[in-house]
């Protein structure tokens, strides 16, 4: 059985967007799923988010799938760069990910500047790596996500006109993500 961790981003909660729907899909085929809760997502602090991740992710092993959205991608990559220490994980899904300052959200600069990502180590740590991006994301320009995808050597999936993959963009469900994730979970021993 795999354990899927869903990690939300800035100004979001565990009940937002497609997170509860995806949890239901994962559990319906017999796997575990936890949605990480970050304290004060309206005023993110990297140290606090890293602490939240360490408290809520029970184990890091070959049965773990990490699915992160937006700022949650960067927080997860920073946390995993320190926490993995040679451990192997099953899969990584980055949704609207980025690893540099966003011109549209300067209030996140301090958070972004504190995160150190060991991409070389992380590429070796995940058996499967995916990055989803949209051609019309108002917060994370597609080239920023593509750059992170190349850095992580991830399979990149463009979802046209998906905005920032939020409910206001029509994403209370995320079938494109489920298509990729379900194949991995169903084929897993």
Automatic annotation (TrEMBL):
<protein>
    <submittedName>
        <fullName>Serine hydrolase family protein</fullName>
    </submittedName>
</protein>
<dbReference type="Pfam" id="PF06821">
    <property type="entry name" value="Ser_hydrolase"/>
</dbReference>
<dbReference type="InterPro" id="IPR029058">
    <property type="entry name" value="AB_hydrolase_fold"/>
</dbReference>
<dbReference type="InterPro" id="IPR010662">
    <property type="entry name" value="RBBP9/YdeN"/>
</dbReference>
<keyword id="KW-0378">Hydrolase</keyword>
<dbReference type="GO" id="GO:0016787">
    <property type="term" value="F:hydrolase activity"/>
</dbReference>
């Amino acid at each position: 059985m795999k354990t899927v961790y869903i990690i939300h981003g800035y100004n979001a909660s565990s009940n937002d967007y497609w997170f509860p729907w995806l949890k239901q899909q994962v559990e319906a085929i017999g796997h575990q799923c936890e949605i990480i809760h970050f304290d004060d997502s309206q005023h993110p602090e990297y140290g606090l988010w890293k602490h939240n991740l360490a408290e809520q992710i029970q184990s890091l092993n070959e049965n773990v799938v990490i699915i992160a959205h937006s700022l949650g991608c960067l927080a997860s990559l920073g946390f995993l760069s320190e926490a993995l220490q040679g451990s192997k994980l099953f899969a990584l899904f980055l949704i609207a990910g980025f690893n540099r300052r966003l011109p549209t959200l300067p209030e996140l600069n301090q958070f972004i500047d504190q995160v150190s990502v060991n991409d070389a180590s992380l590429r070796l740590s995940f058996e499967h790596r995916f990055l989803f991006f949209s051609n019309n994301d108002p917060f994370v320009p597609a080239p920023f996500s593509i750059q992170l995808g190349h850095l992580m050597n991830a399979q990149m999936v463009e979802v046209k006109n998906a905005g920032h993959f939020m409910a206001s963009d029509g994403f209370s469900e995320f079938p494109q993500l489920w298509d990729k994730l379900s194949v991995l979970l169903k084929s897993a021993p």
